[in-house]
Amino acid sequence: MSTVSNRRRFLQNTTFLSLSSVTSSWLCGTLARAAVSPVRRVGGSQIKLALNAYSFSKLLNDHAKGRDSGMSLLQLVEFCARHGFDGFDPTGYFFPGYPKAPADEYVNELKRRAFDAGLGISGTGVRNNFTTADKAVRAAGVKHIKEWVEVAARLGAPVLRVLRIPR
Predict the structure, then answer these.
(1) pLDDT per residue over 128-147, tens digit each?
(2) pLDDT value of position 26
(3) Please, which residues have CB within 8 angstroms of residue 111's CB and are 6 or more apart in sequence?
(4) Which of 13, 58, 89, 156 pairs with 28 at a CA distance of 20 to 30 A?
(5) Could you tell me how far CA 121 lies from the centroid of its own chain?
(6) How far apart are CA 29 and CA 35, in angstroms?
(7) 155: closest CA among 128, 125, 123?
(8) pLDDT tens across 87-126, in order?
């Protein structure tokens, strides 16, 4: 009976010692990392708040379908400016005539309105279906993305999100 008790006690003690040494080394490493001074930035944080147009998908789709309760991308620019956003992401689905690339006149008007409102264009996004086995559909998807890379460049958008959305 005493050997079982001693064996149990030995296992308990060694387990405790192992865990305590691991915990103490982790804690020391954490404290050492916490002691490092934060990165100094000139002018403070550079985080800016932008609105993705998809947040207004119902209103933007209503506008695209000619419903009275809708909102255009140009109206979304005004909304963003009134509510203190730094930028917005005009998702491609909500451009007139999507999936076709918008006319230069529309892109220029959207850029001008955003600029006048003090908004940056943080990116844009389009649909694709690269997962299909049909080579013709994939080739059309590649062509579509290339067209929208050009639109993103004309907008001054640093990002083009390519989203897989089933149809």
Answers:
(1) 888 888 999 999 999 999 99
(2) 54
(3) 121, 154, 155, 156
(4) 13
(5) 13
(6) 10
(7) 123
(8) 999 999 999 999 999 999 999 999 999 999 999 999 999 9
DSSP string, the chain: -HHHHHHHHHHHHHHHHHHHHHHHHHHHHHHHHHHSPPPP-TTS-----EEEGGGGHHHHHHHHTT-TT---HHHHHHHHHHTT-SEEE--GGGSTTTTSPPPHHHHHHHHHHHHHTT-EE--EEEEE-TT-S-HHHHHHHHHHHHHHHHHHHHHT-S-EEEEE---
Handedness of CA 95, 122, 152, 119 (dihedral sign): positive
Please enumerate, as own/partner, the contacts of 58-64 that have beta carbons within 8 Å and a separation of 24 or more. 60/93, 60/94, 61/94, 63/94, 64/94, 64/96
- What strands lie across the sheet with 50-52, from one edge to the other? 50-52, 87-89, 120-121
Let me know if 126 is exposed, middle or buried by CB neighbors in 10 A (0-12, 13-18, 19+): buried
Q: Is the peptide bond before 38 cis (omega within 30 degrees of 0)?
A: no
The token pair that represents 153 in the structure block: 């460049």
Asked if residue 89 lies in contact with residue 56, where contact means CB atoms within 8 angstroms, the answer is no
Question: Please, what's the b/e burial string for 150-167 (b: 16 or more CB within 10 A of its CB; e: otherwise)?
Answer: ebbeebebeebbeeeeee
